[in-house]
Every structure is written in C-alpha cells, then in structure tokens.
Design goal:
This protein has 804 residues and is an alpha+beta fold. It has 2 domains: 264 residues, Kinesin motor domain (Kinesin), CATH 3.40.850; 361 residues, no CATH class. 30% of the residues lie in helices and 15% in strands. The chain has 24 helices and 25 strands. The strands form 6 sheets. Strands 2, 6, 7, 8, 9, 10, 13, 16, 17, 18, 20 and 25 form a 12-stranded mixed beta sheet that branches. Strands 21-22-23-24 form a 4-stranded antiparallel beta sheet. Strand 16 and strand 17 form a beta hairpin. The radius of gyration is 30 Å and the shape is globular. Bound molecules: adenosine-5'-triphosphate. The site of adenosine-5'-triphosphate has 19 residues, from helix 6 and strand 15. Belongs to the TRAFAC class myosin-kinesin ATPase superfamily. Kinesin family. This is Kinesin-like protein. It is found in: Cytoplasm, Cytoskeleton.
C-alpha cells in the first residue's frame, strides 16, 4: 500500500507546470525539475483519470471505491485497501475531455513538440479503464456520425492546437504522422492498406530505436489527420471480452512529426508528439479470454510487465541504475527515448472506480507512482541549416557510392548525375541546380565528391535555399537504391517520359496523369524500341533471368508480377515483371510484347492530383512517405524518413509495397515531364537510361550513337537545366578523366562484353538508326560542352563495393 506520506512529497501542480519551451528555465543546482528543462533531469508528468461507473457496473451494484480529493490526490477506500496517492493532476469521473486536455499539460506538450522536443503521452491502465476514450474520445461508429466535439480526446485537441500554431506561424510547420501498432510483439503499420505485415525495428545511434519502413503521411488540415486517425484505428486489432466490448488488442503509437522551418539564419526544429494507447492489462479469468484472445492477453501482459521493469529500473537514482531492460519487448524499445532518454513524457493512468477492479486499480496507481520518479533529460532537436545541408550531402554521397557499386554488381551502366528540383519560388534556370550537381560544380576542381565538405555546402546554401533540391536528389537515390537492392531495374530518371508516351499511344496513360501533354511518339525512340521487342534490356547481366538474345529477355526480377504474364504461363515459367516507372503511375512490363499478352505499359488508377501520393486514402493534403530504409551500409545518417513514395490508391501487396513513386524531376511538382518544365532532350535521357547491351545489339549502321561510350554517359543530365556554353576548364579536365577512366571501367564489364564492345550506337528493329539524343529545340546535344560530368567509376572506393 502506498504510504500516506507519499502525498506530502508531491509538489503542487501549479508549481510544477514550468514548461519553458523557449526560455528553458535554470533550476537551482541539484534540483530535480518536473517542468522540462533542457539537459536537466526532468520528472515524468503523471496524471490520473478516473472514469465513471459503466451501466453494467451500476447495474451489478459495484461500489465506487476511488475518489478524487481535489488537490491532485486520489483516495482508494476499500476494506483492505486504504491509500492516498498524489500525482501531477487527478481527474475524477465528472471531468470533461477539455478539462483533461488543459489540466494535464497537453497544450504545453504541443508547444514543446513545436520547439523541437520529442514529446510522448501515453495512457495506461486496466482494460476498459478509458485509455482510448481519453486519447481519442468515444468510438466513432461511422464517418457519418462523428463524435460530438466536446467528447474529442487528447489527440484531436492536440492536432487542433498544432494546426492552430501552424497557421499562426504562416507556413512555419510541416506536419506528418505515422501510426503503428504492436500486436503480438509485431510492429504493424496502421496506415498501410492491405494485409498487415510486420515491420522491422531497428536501432541507430542517432535515432535510437525506430520502425523501419513505416508510412509517414503529411497533413495540413484537421480533416486529414482525423481521417488518418480513423483509418488507422479501424485497422487496429480490437475484440470484445467480458470487460470491454471494444477492447484494443495492441499497443498503438501515433507519432506526429513537427518540423518547424526557421528563418534562414536560425536552426530548424524537429520535434515529435507521440500518442501511445497501451493495450490494457487484463486478468484472463476476469475477461474470459480464450484461444486467440488469451494469446493476445499474454503478449499484452508480457510487454506491460517489461514496461514495468523498465520503469522500476529508471525510477532508481541515476547513480544506482544498472541495466535498463529496454530490449525485453518491442514496446519498451520504442518507448526508450520517452522513458529514459531525451524526451518529455506525460503519462495518463486510467482507472476504474469500481470495487470489482480494486486490485487492478491499486496496481495501476503503484505503477504510476513509480513512474513519477522517472526522469528524462530533454534535449530539443535543433538542426542548423548548415548541419542539415551537410548531413544531406553526406547521405547523398553515401547513397551515390552505394548505388554505383550496386550498379556495378548488376552490370548496369551508370546514370547521369541527378537533376534537382528548383527550390520553391525559385525559377528553374540553367545551371541553377542546387542539388548534387550544383554542389559538385561548386566543389574544388577535381575534388572527389566525398571530399566536398562543409565549405561547399555552405557555399551552396548561401547561393539559394538548397534542401528542396537536396531532398529531391536524396529521394531519387533512395528509390534507385531500393530498386537496385532488390536486383530490379532502378527507377530511372527520365523513363517516365517514354512510358507516358507509350501509355498515351494506348490511350490510357495520359488520362491517368491528367495527360495534358502528349508529344508525338516518334520523338521517343525507347518507347518504340520497347514496343517492338527491341533487344535484351538487361544486357545479359542477370544470369538465368536473361537468355541473352535479342527479344528474349524474360525480364528482371521485380516486385510486382505482371498479372497477364503470370496467368498465361510463359514457356520458361518466369513471369513478366511490372516495373513501376518513376513519376507516372505507370507500370512497364519488361517482357516483350511477343511473349507478354499484357500491354507493355499499364496505367494505374487515375489519381486526383499527381502530387497526392501514397498508399493511404486520398484526403486533403496527404502525402505519404516511408521511413528509413535499412541500417545497412553507409547510410542511415539522417533522422528523417526516406522518401519512398507509393502511388495513391494502389493497394500494397506486401509490406514493402514496391510501387514507388517519384515526384517529377522537373521543378514543377505536377509536371508529368512536359517540355516546358523539363527542357532537356528527351532522347538524350533515353539513351542514358537504357542499359547499353554491347554484346547483344546488332551492330548499327554508321552515323548515330545511342549507347554512350565510357566517359560520355555523364554528359547529359535529365532535367538539369543546363544551357549550352563553352566548356569550363574543370569540365575539360573531367572529360579527360573520363577518357582515361575507360580502361579502368573495362574491368567492370563482363569479359564477353568487354571483348565485344561495339560501336556506341544501336538500331531499331527495322534497322533504322535511332539517334540517341534527338536535338531538342534550343538545347544542347546531350554530350555538348558545358554539361556537368558525373561521378567516375574510379571514384567509388573499392572497400565500399566490398562492403556492399
Ligand atoms: N471518462 C469517460 N466517460 C465516459 N465514458 C467512458 C470514460 N472512459 C471510458 N469510458 C467508456 O468506457 C468504455 C471502455 O473505454 P475504453 O475502450 O476507452 O477503455 P480502454 O482502457 O481503452 O480499454 P482496452 O484496454 O480494453 O482497449 C467505453 O465504452 C468508453 O466509452
């Protein structure tokens, strides 16, 4: 039993709510603070909510044994239990939802999240004690019958508060949400449609424990986040048992990521607000759980026990703490930062007043009292622009090197340097790319990109706001990396155009994309080549996947089986593969038409707008991204999610949901690749994205080249907005390096390929020479002087390739 004296030691609520998001108060030495103080021990804030007796309990004649004494204390009076507990606040059964929001300090928590702190609120208690009610309000039966505004829970009120703050700061806050549940010790994404699948839990030094590949959805309105909450809650596992007709069978974690964009000189802040609705502890004999319900109950109780152990260990003074068993359950891993790290945490202990629940109530109150002794050391996550740029650049470099190595292993040709999107509000102009290409240009002559350090980043950041470009480049690399890791064709920049043309020719793709632009198919040689069964696209680099003869490539391994091919049964039993093409919501079957009865390109479902992407239901301002990929390799440097985007409305067949979507490479977010926004030679792109098959191609006639020779592939940059101009000295040097590297590049190709490297051109099936880079009016030939070279093969360190 909790001693009476416990009460006296509790500081008063008014004195404790010293939330200082900005000033960060200075405590007296050795003083332990309850209000968050950066870098100082700060107690968890624990409040108690007593729910009213339910109809069943009243009907049964249960006695009310829990009473709030009005001064943040709660009194339990029963035959063998008589105790008083003090907390930060106690809300009795008559307290409104709004009073709970205001009195619990939730509003301050929202402000702290905006200020860059990782804030967590979690509700715990016995099953049926009102945790979900406190966080989300009463169960919403349907969208047509929303809950009365006065009943909305802490979540909805916090969202409203956040959005209000966002509006008052102009375009200052970028908000996104992710929603996962831990069900039977498996982490599952509640925002991904389709059958639930387990997501891996990873650890990194910078981020601690995190869920890999969870979907993160941007939102800008209350309706949007309310939809997400509703959608996720519907997917969450719940069942009926004796104590609750809608009992949650999983722990749910909804995290809102708050990114405050600061004026250029100030650091930006990246806070989080995480709502954890724990599944309720339960006694199987009380709930009458059997079978699956009892398995769930065991898992719930086990993870709550692990949480209890962590809290007990953390409640000891710092010097006396030994090991904190965070790794005992997924729940404690995910809550590690909130409990003992640098976050700020509010715990809401929910209890039933019924005499029947007395022992569970006592256990919850003891648990809560112990939690009050737990301290964290809050640290705001502030990222200076310089630092963010540097981190982004490092990430891009690491990814580029890794992709180079992967391409090398897959015998794919290099890609040209990535173009970048212009920063919002910055008109796209030649040479103004601020991404990788821009940074490389600003690097000292001949310097390895990996050696481009803070200085060049700083230069880049001084020239213009660079991160929209860098993020765009990073996203491209991540998408490409994922494709390469799966052994499939990378999402190749620029290919979207050809496939849009193709779909347009079939009368479907253009419409799906809003299709305002439909250039003549004659300007798209690759599209023609694909449709007419031109050559093997994978250059024989895939072993058994490719028979290595013209027109007989059975496709690269890819994530989405082509329904038509797999159903019709092809001679080798190797189904065709639908490759999602960047930016277009299109899928291309790599099998050739002769053997694939499916259309070469399939358009996806029409989408309301090209930039409303993600596999979450279309809703105002939704934009879905997947969180960080894997902790392998030299990546995982950033604390932000990888931008693996999924097309809207496309059901994910697996947890990887491999239908990737890239924003158009042009500066215009809704541009499907029109010549106005993407003033690069379309054909030049095609010549670069097509893997050149040196051994398998018919030797073309003289006069045109489509496969650029080593050292020249880098000449044309898709959407890089270059203008023709005389070669700069460092560019001339680069070209000479390109020539000299050809010898070293040779060893990257299969011997057969090396021996039979033919002229750098190809022909269409009719024998007609297809120029690789048809001139686009007003723009340079792809290999014209002034183009920015890409990373050389030699520049990818061997050790990296070995590691990968
Ligand atoms: N403060 C409250 N006022 C009115 N009704 C409440 C209150 N708290 C809970 N209830 C009601 O009690 C029932 C159980 O609540 P809820 O589902 O939120 O419990 P829970 O703790 O989340 O249970 P579980 O752990 O099993 O999911 C619901 O019908 C809910 O509407």
């Amino acid at each position: 039993m909790e001693p009476e004296g416990e009460r006296g030691r509790e500081p008063q609520l008014g004195a404790r709510t010293k939330t200082l998001p900005r000033g960060l108060q200075k405590p007296s030495p050795g003083e332990e603070q309850e209000g968050p103080v950066a870098g100082r021990d700060t107690r968890l804030r624990v409040v108690v909510r007593v729910r009213p007796l339910t109809c069943t309990e009243t009907r049964r004649g249960d006695r009310q044994v829990v009473h709030s004494l009005g001064d943040s204390t709660v009194h339990v009076s029963a035959a063998r239990h008589d105790a008083t507990f003090g907390f930060s606040a106690v809300f009795d059964s008559g307290t409104s939802q709004e009073a709970v929001f205001e009195g619990s300090g939730m509003r301050q928590l929202v402000e702290l999240a905006i200020d860059g702190f990782a804030c967590t609120v979690f509700a715990f208690g016995q099953t049926g004690s009102g945790k979900t009610y406190t966080l989300m309000g009463p169960l919403v039966q349907s969208e047509a019958q929303p809950a009365a505004p006065c009943l909305l829970g802490l979540m909805q009120r916090s969202f409203a508060c956040l959005l209000e703050q966002s509006r008052s700061r102009g375009a200052g806050l970028a908000l996104s949400a992710s929603y996962v549940e831990i069900y039977n010790e498996q982490v599952r994404d509640l925002l991904s449609p389709g059958p639930p699948c387990a997501l891996p839990l990873r650890w990194s030094k910078s981020r601690g424990f995190y869920v890999e590949n969870q979907l993160s959805v941007e939102f800008e309105s209350l309706e949007a986040i309310a939809d997400l909450l509703l959608e996720g809650s519907r997917r969450r596992r719940s069942s009926a048992h004796a104590l609750n007709r809608h009992s949650s069978r999983s722990h749910a974690l909804l995290t809102v990521h708050v990114h405050s964009r600061a004026p250029s000189a100030c650091p930006s802040k990246q806070g989080t607000l995480c709502f954890v609705d724990l599944a309720g502890s339960e006694r199987v004999k009380d709930t009458g759980s059997t079978g699956e319900l009892s398995v769930e109950a065991n898992n719930i109780n086990r993870s709550l026990l692990a949480l209890g152990h962590c809290i007990s260990s953390l409640a000891k003074p710092r010097g006396k703490r030994t090991h904190i068993p965070y790794r005992d359950s997924k729940l404690t891993r995910l809550l590690a930062r909130s409990l003992g790290g640098s976050g700020i945490t509010l715990m809401v202990a929910c209890i039933s007043p019924s005499s029947r629940c007395l022992s569970e109530t006592m256990s919850t109150l003891h648990y809560a009292s112990r939690a009050r002794r737990v301290t964290t050391r809050p640290v705001a996550n502030r990222v200076s622009r310089e630092k963010l740029l540097q981190t982004l650049e490092e990430e891009i470099q690491a990814l580029q090197l890794e992709n180079l190595s992967l391409r090398r292993q897959l015998c794919l040709p290099r890609l040209p340097a990535r173009s970048t999107e212009a920063a919002p509000g910055t008109p796209a102009r030649a040479g103004a790319g601020l991404g990788w290409g821009g940074l490389r240009q600003s690097s000292p002559e001949g310097q390895h990109p990996a050696a481009v350090g803070e200085g060049s980043v700083a230069r880049a950041s001084r020239r213009a706001p660079a991160w929209p470009s860098l993020y765009s480049v990073l996203r491209d690399f991540v998408v490409e990396n994922e494709r390469l890791r799966h052994g499939g064709s990378p999402a190749l920049p620029g290919t979207r155009r050809s496939h849009e043309l193709r779909a347009d020719a079939q009368g479907s793709g253009g419409a799906a994309l809003g299709g305002s632009w439909s250039p003549p198919a004659a300007q798209d040689p690759v599209s023609d080549d694909l449709s007419q069964g031109w050559g093997c696209l994978c250059q024989g680099g895939f072993g058994s996947m490719c028979r290595g003869q013209e027109g007989s490539c059975l496709g690269m391994p890819g994530p989405v089986p082509c329904a038509a091919c797999s159903q019709s049964g092809n001679p080798t039993g190797n189904p065709g593969t639908l490759i999602p093409w960047a930016g277009q919501g299109l899928e291309a079957c790599w099998r050739l038409p002769a053997s694939c009865p499916a259309p070469l390109l399939l358009s996806r479902q029409p989408r309301p707008a090209p930039d409303l992407i993600g596999d979450v239901p279309a809703s105002p301002s939704h934009r879905a991204t997947r969180s960080s990929w894997s902790a392998r390799g030299p990546r995982a440097l950033l604390g932000h999610p990888a931008r693996l985007l999924q097309p809207n409305g496309t059901p994910a067949s697996s947890c990887w949901a491999p239908l990737l979507k890239l924003a158009p490479a042009s500066g215009c977010p809704c541009c499907p690749g029109c010549p106005q926004c993407c003033p690069e030679p379309a054909g030049a792109i095609m010549s670069q994205v097509l893997p050149g098959p040196p051994t398998l191609q018919p030797v073309p006639a003289e006069g045109s080249a489509s496969i650029p020779p080593p050292g020249q592939e880098d000449a044309a940059l898709p959407c890089s907005h270059q203008l023709p101009g005389p070669p700069q000295p460092h560019q001339a040097k680069r070209r000479s390096q390109g020539r000299s590297r050809s010898s070293s590049q040779r060893h990257l190709l299969p011997r057969e390929s090396r021996d039979q490297r033919g002229p750098e051109r190809r022909t269409s099936p009719e024998g007609k020479v297809v120029p690789s880079a048809p001139p686009w009016p007003g723009l340079p030939e792809p290999r014209a002087a002034g183009a920015v070279p890409v990373l050389q093969w030699e520049e990818a360190p061997d050790w990296l390739a070995e590691q990968i």
